[in-house]
Amino acid sequence: TDYKLKGEGKILTFTVIHVAPEDFKRQAQYIMAIVKLDEGPKITTQIVNCKLEEIHIGMRVRAVFRRIKEDGSSGIIHYGYKFEPCKA
User: Fold this and answer.
1) Are 30 and 19 a contacting pair, CB within 8 Å?
2) Residues with Cβ < 8 Å from 86, sequence gap 6 or more?
3) Which is nearest to 49 in space by CA: 15, 78, 82?
4) Which of 2, 30, 40, 43 has the fewest Cβ atoms nearer than 10 Å?
5) In this structure, are residues 47 and 32 in contact, taking their beta carbons and an 8 Å threshold?
6) pTM score
7) Are the CB atoms for 65 and 78 separated by under 8 Å?
8) Which residues of 23-49 are buried (b: 16+ CB within 10 A; e: fewer)?
9) pLDDT in tens, 38-66
10) Strand 30-37 vs strand 8-17: parallel, antiparallel, or unpaired?
11) Pick from 58, 6, 50: nearest CA to 34
12) What sign results for the dihedral spanned by CA atoms 43, 46, 48, 52?
C-alpha cells in the first residue's frame, strides 16, 4: 500500500552534532532531530534554516528538498529531504 505524507510534523527530541562523520565535516555543527510526522511515523532528520537558540521540542517543521552530501572524487551529489521550521 502506498502512503502519501504531507511532510509536516513536530520535533520530539534533538541533538547538535559537533564532530561530524567524514562526509558531513563541512556541515558541522548541525542539528539532528527525531520528528513525528502528522500522519504518525517518526523519522530521524537534519534540521536546517534554524539557529540553535531557536529550536525547541514541539517545534513545527516541514520537509524541504536539499543537498545531502557529495561523493569525493566522483562528484556525485546526493539530494534528499531535510526539515526546517514551519513559517507562521
Assistant:
1) no
2) 8, 60, 61, 62
3) 82
4) 2
5) yes
6) 0.84
7) no
8) eeeeeeebbebebebeeeeeeebbbee
9) 999 999 999 999 999 999 999 999 999 99
10) antiparallel
11) 58
12) positive
Residue 29, C-alpha cell as written in the block:
555543527
Question: Which residue did the predictor score with more confidence, 18 or 25?
Answer: 18
Is residue 21 predicted with pLDDT exceeding 80?
A: no
Up-side HSE of residue 58: CA atoms within 13 Å toward CB?
0
For the chain, what is the mean pLDDT?
A: 90
CA 61 from chain center: how many Å? 9
- C-alpha distance from residue 32 to each of 4, 18, 37, 67, 72 (Å): 24, 11, 15, 15, 23
- Whether 29 has a pLDDT exceeding 90, the answer reads no
CA 43 to chain centroid, in Å, comes to: 9
**CB-based contact 38:11 (threshold 8 Å):** no
